[in-house]
Amino acid sequence: MLINRNYSHTEHFMAKNISSMALASVLVSCAMLSLVGCVSTTAPQYVIDSDSYQATGKSERIKTIVLHYTVSDNESSIKTLTTGNVSAHYLVLDNDDNKIYNLVPESERAWHAGDGGFAGRTILNDTSIGIEIVNSGIKPEYRDALKNGTLDYHPYEHYVAFDELQIKKVAQLVQDIAARYDISPKNIIGHSDMAPSRKIDPGAKFPWERLYFDYGIGAWYDEFDKQFFMNQDGFASATIPEIKQAFRKYGYQINDTDTWDKASRDVVYAFQLHFRAQQPTGNMDSETYAILQALNKKYAGRDDFY
Fold first, then answer.
1. How far apart are CA 80 and CA 264, in angstroms?
2. For the chain, how many structural domains are there in total?
3. Could you give the strand order of the β-sheet that contains 128-133, starting from the edge strand earlier in sequence?
4. Does residue 277 lie within any of the structural domains?
5. What pTM value is reported for the model?
6. Is the residue at 273 inside a domain?
7. Structural domain that includes position 94
8. pLDDT tens-digit series, residues 91-148
9. How crowded is residue 115: how many other Cβ atoms within 10 Å of its Cβ?
10. Annotated catalytic residue, options 11, 132, 209, 242
């Protein structure tokens, strides 16, 4: 009986301690819950104010229009530009209709430009609108003309002409885009202008001169200035580095070697495709240099880089 009484006393003591510990635990838990209750679980909602202040240091993201030809027919062009890893914002078919096809929203990047650059920009997909025009490019009988080594570049007659309706559609489209984004005339270019060692489109028969005079599209030199520079015969005394710097001044990417290597001649050819299309030779000459000087006189400082 003595043992039982001692056991009961110990049991009572342990029970009392356990009760005290449980009470303390409950009090701590309650305190923690009270603190949690003081913290808001809903994130504050802030208002974007676009009206109170406006910056003046800004410009449009779209700076360049790049014109291409597809080197394929309508069906193949549609398939390539809508299902593959290449695209363009607009496609002009050679159908006799009133449609221009918008394949990529202007607010999104189309994958049309690739490696290259112009007027100080090197990732033109980020800042350009791409327009593809259905055209075969080089006539079938001349597509292997460069393979035997007798020619370095395709002459004017090797290229396929564009349909009249295509030119009218392109003119309307480019006029609209250039006006909406305030694009500099010299930044309306061909694929060959930005990638001269990779591309030759839209080719020698794309009517740059006509688009300038009939529709006010793009850049073109003044004949008076061209003749002035021809008479000055600056080409005779100009060094290769000086001529290459003149190309850079206009916007072309060209290396700084002191020779007319193939990469440098590719730039000359691209320039001639655009501004002396009936004689694209890839060789630098006095007329090509005079045209380049006339363009720089007219458009220097109009890159709109920012």
1. 31
2. 1
3. 101-102, 90-92, 128-133, 64-69, 188-190
4. yes
5. 0.85
6. yes
7. 64-299
8. 999 999 999 999 999 999 999 999 999 999 999 999 999 999 999 999 999 999 999 8
9. 12
10. 132
